[in-house]
Amino acid sequence: MVRIGLIGTLEQSLPHVEILKKVPGVEIAGFYNPIKDSVTNSQTNGFIREFNSFDAFIPSVDAIDFVCKSQNCYDVAQQALKKTKHLFISTSILKNRQQAHQLINLANEANVTLMVERPVRYHAALNAILPQIKNLRLIEIHNQFSDENEDTHESIFRAIMTDIEIIHTVLQANVKNVKACGIKMVNGNPDVINIRLEFDNACVANLNC
């Protein structure tokens, strides 16, 4: 029996709980919300236990489902790996690739499983059209961001990861070459980012931010 706990609010946890209840060999330990200033519904009505602290939560679980999508949960993920817990996370809790590598290294040191959800791969509309997509040779993806968004860099990182996941799902091919560049025209950071991915099936993908 695997004891699974959830990180996030009650509202975020309930859809996952409904799915986990159908999985054999799973016991739902409860949920813990590390973001204290978020609005949560503490009236669980005995349906699912709410833990008031991480220290009380962590001994009660073998694996953790991060239903929380906030980057504030990254530190909690690090702590959980150091406590040798298996994790299921969303890429939205990551700010950059350094954080991704850090979690991978911690999971390897702890000899636990670190799984990342891939919602694009299971998107109903995308899966419906996949049989009609054949022999692609060029893919163009454009993203535009405003400096008014204080989390622009994190948004770009998440957008590019999503773009790459879409491309991989559609092509099912291996990358043989990567070229990337950033151009500074106005700001101290790159204003234009271009990534060119070349695949072993002769397709080329251009990603622009």
Describe this structure in words.
With 209 residues, the chain is of the alpha/beta class. 31% of the residues lie in helices and 25% in strands. The protein contains 6 helices and 10 strands. It has helices at 10-20, 54-57, 74-82, 97-110, 124-129, 152-171; strands at residues 2-7, 26-32, 50-51, 63-66, 86-89, 114-116, 138-142, 175-183, 192-199, 204-208. Helix 3 (74-82) runs parallel beside helix 4. The chain is globular, with a radius of gyration of 20 Å. The chain starts with a strand and ends with a strand.
Main attributes?
209 residues, alpha/beta, six-stranded parallel sheet, four-stranded mixed sheet, 6 helices, 10 strands, globular
Portion of residues in beta strands equals 25-35%
Structural class designation:
alpha/beta
Number of strands: 10
Average pLDDT rating: 87
What does the largest sheet look like?
6 strands, parallel
The low-confidence runs, each spanning 5 or more residues with pLDDT under 50, are: 38-45
The run of helices and strands is EHEEHEHEHEHEHEEE
Q: Give the end-to-end Cα distance, rounded to a whole number of Å.
A: 46 Å
Total helix count?
6
Task: Give me a quick take on this structure.
This protein has helices at 10-20, 54-57, 74-82, 97-110, 124-129, 152-171; strands at residues 2-7, 26-32, 50-51, 63-66, 86-89, 114-116, 138-142, 175-183, 192-199, 204-208. The chain is an alpha/beta fold and 209 residues long. The strands form two sheets. The protein has a six-stranded parallel β-sheet with strand order 3-2-1-4-5-6, with helices on both faces.
